[in-house]
Amino acid sequence: MKILVTVKRVPDPESSIKVNPEGTGIVESGLKWVVNPFDEIAIEEALRIKEAQGDVEVVVVSVGVSESQEQLRTGLAMGADRAILVKADRPDTAAVAKILVKLVEKEQPTLVILGKQAIDDDSNEVGQMLAHLLGWPQATFISKLTFAGDKASVECIREVDGGMETIAFALPAIITADLRLNEPRYASLPGIMKARKKPMEEIDAASLGVDLTPRVRIKKMAPPPARTAGRKVESVDELINALQTEAKVM
Amino acid sequence: MSDTLVNLRDIRFVLYEMLDVEALTKYDYFADYSKDTFDTVLEAAYKLAREVCWPSYAEMDRVGATFDAKTGETSVPKCMHRIWQAYKEGGWGGETAPAEVGGQQLPACVAAATSLMFNAANTAANMYVAGAGGAAGLILSFGSDTLKKVYVEKLYAGEWGGTMCLTEPQAGSSLSDVKSTAVKAKDGDHYLLTGTKCFISSGDHDLTENIVHPVLARIPGAPAGVKGISLFIVPKYRVGDDGAVGELNDVVTAGIEHKLGIRGNATATLNFGDRGECRGWLLGEPNRGLAYMFQLMNHARIGTGLQATSLASNAYQHALQYTRERAQSRKISEKDPASPQVPIIKHSDVRRMLLTQKATTEGLFALLAYAASLGDKELCSPDEAERLAATDMLDVLTPVCKAYGSEASYDSIVQAIQCYGGYGFSEEFPLAQMLRDCKVFPIYEGTNGIQALDLLGRKVVMKNGAAFKAVLDEISKTVAEASRVESLKDMAVKVAAASDAVGDVTAHLAGIAMGGDIELYMSAATPYLRMFSRLVISWLFLWQSTLAQKALEACAGDENYYKGKLGTARFYLNNELPHLHATVQILKNGERTALDFDEAWF
């Protein structure tokens, strides 16, 4: 079996993000970049399947700038078998999904595991778009994945509003990982050394013959308004009045 | 809480731009590495440090290591078990060890960077790893094949813990007074040890199935003093030649210290051979023990400088974030009391405190990584002259790394706490613990007073002063290089003048020593060490400035970093270096008040 896992390069969630003066994006210089935390969970799940089933190849793939190699290497150091970098300049989610379709056609994986969303723009779209374009079953926001005995289908527990949903479907399929699916391992030193000898293929997005024209345009980016001081009210009536007339949330 | 524990950009500058770590990969020993792999290693270490080690920092202190007098068992805080597991799974115990014993052969200067991260996150925790690695290194260097086979891989792999047992109640700084004895057994290849060792870091714990103690002891009939000390490997539990752990080896923990800091690390008093059944195996030759131990000690001294610097780096990162966020008062020029308060980083006195910390931590990391890179050269350079030169430099710089590293770091954390005001004094914030943790570094691994004696009494005069002169020669090369850069000329002049003054006063002191007043000569040791340290740090800043200036001229990007580097260097040279000249004057005056002060007058 082959599992394709997506890896996105994102700013470290612990770093302070500033919007650039032009309001077109964030200030990127001096930022520390990491593997999208949900993608780490996706890698971990693929590695656990590999460890449980044996004959599984885990391929990590990233779409983005050349520096995304760093994040792919982390995936290899965790234990993935090989990596593919598709170089593309700030593709939107639709473009990423279309690029992934091409890779799926080429690699023929049984399972594609993605993080449910990337923590930079929180779009939460690529998995769903990919499933649609491929016409494959999808299970998003999963917190548990179990293979059926014949390994031709899986059962997933999804985290949905107000509870859990269990669904079963035939492979091949698309899975997007939620926070509670597993706790990802740390890259080990021996793992890092082994990763050096693992193949990393580079593909130019333009060579894949997909339409990369952005469908989404960022018109303006601004930091959320600074939180203002609260105030004490004298009575419940006053509170309700303030919520209705000032905050306009009731 | 701060975004970062250490300045990652500065680490990259030191490793890649200043020390050119990539060049090491041309040596066979490091040929498996590349810049990419170093990056991934740094990334992985930082992630582990921040996500696993740092969240337990407070718990290590609050819970601390505990000793149950009834059962005689020592326990580490619960969080430490998880950290140990993570270190073990990650292979971090064998970071720099050779591949044939399961290590990763990482260059020591890259390991200096990961050590900075791990110690910044949780230094008491990292000491357990360092203990095991230190014991393994000793056995690997000097042990018999059997000892190597039994112990080395298990120690590097984190299966077993390790220590170094030097101090005894009556023999701390004075190792020549070690009294523990080792008598050759009649029925085997081992010795029977008796004695008490105290202040043993990671001396007992429940992390591993065994703990391996390298122990200094005397064989009966050995010469008095340091020439009669041998080194033995003494496991807590006896080990068969097949590596199987057996019965207790008559090593008993008498108790652990209740300490000011690093409370998560068990500092034990160990009794060896109370029942006459403590077996130890001689390492190398008899009576060479102290020389062997010094290989480990020199390494540990640089490690101590790193521990201290890492805490100061973390404290600085916290202070920086805090002063950017905490609003108090207005600029002095702002007369309107209704205008909003400004973040305190806008106040000049706060900036002065921040710059002091920035200069201390960056200057020290440059020194420590440079020292580690000398170790790499010593190990790998095919050129014998280069290897010897590296050893000489390292010999001279080791006491600077340890003593100035620990002292300046402590002072730096004091400044970080000052930036926090009353909140810094509160244990609710991590800075108070950092200060407490840092206080041990000027004390252990040879007190700073001992380091100063080592520098002036041994290192400055060794090889007729050739090693010391080699350092001054390196400084001259950097001065010459910097003098060619227009904007750095004034800085080069300052460093050259300081170097001349240090050379001058050293000759003056040598005259005193040769004149026979050795007490006066050695009484200058501590001020001398501080003075020399300031020269060394200034030199490294000048070196860094040359690179930063070139990067700026090449428009390599990252302008704020390079401008910050130049400003920090200038700050150190303008504010810290001038103290050197005051010390020179004091030493030239033949200051002897403390020496002549009668004890009855205190």
Largest interface: A-B, 23 and 31 residues
Assembly state of the chains shown: heterodimer
**What is the global morphology of chain A?**
globular
The CATH class designation of chain A is Alpha Beta
Instruction: Give the CATH H-level superfamily of the largest domain in chain B.
Output: Acyl-CoA dehydrogenase/oxidase, N-terminal domain
What structural class results from the helix and strand content of chain A? Answer: alpha/beta
Q: Which structural class do you get from the secondary structure elements of chain B?
A: alpha+beta
What is the CATH topology descriptor of chain A? Rossmann fold
What is the makeup of the main sheet of chain B? Answer: 8 strands, mixed
The rough form of chain B would be described as globular
**Are there runs of chain A of 5+ residues with pLDDT below 50, and where?**
none
Strand percent estimate of chain B:
5-15%
What's a concise summary of this model?
Chain A is of the alpha/beta class. Chain A has helices at 37-53, 69-78, 93-107, 126-134, 189-195, 236-245, and strands at 2-6, 9-11, 33-35, 57-64, 82-87, 111-115, 138-147, 153-160, 163-170, 173-177, 200-204. Chain A has one domain: HUPs (Rossmann fold, 3-Layer(aba) Sandwich).
